[in-house]
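Running this now, will post back.
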Amino acid sequence: MSPVGLKLWVVGVLALLLLAVSGTWKVQDWRYGKRLAEQAGLHQSDLNTISRAASAQVQAEQDKRRALEQQLSVSEQTHYRALSDAQRDQDRLRDRLATADVRLSVLLDADDVAAGCAMPATPRAGGVDHGGARARLDPAHAQRIIAITDAGDRGLIALQACQAYIRALGR
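Update: finished.
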């Protein structure tokens, strides 16, 4: 073979080799491209699944929060109603004491000779007392006692509301 023929033959072999390498690269590129597309699709599918699960969890938490808010609203309304009822009852009693419609009295110890109280042990005609001597309280003292019981009633109602709130949170 002549040197020119040999050179052409080497150039031809190199061209074929270059063409083979280039074709191989193209085939590899297609394969990897296809794999990357599949992986991207799987990744997107996983992200969608995670997103749906997170959305469902957020919705469940919002539903729980709404239910708790409704329970607390009902509890607050009940507390307010009990408080206003107690206040109304205390106001009525205070008014009745002020108009002398009702009088507060205390039961005296009949065995206490040192008290020096000459109250009869038997009830008067038309009275509602059943036995035992009683002494009527001064209206100002009666008003203070009513104010004390009013504060106590309010405290008990507030305590019940707090306990209901804690129970609702515990559920």
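The CA atoms of residues 18 and 24 lie 10 Å apart. More later if anyone needs it.
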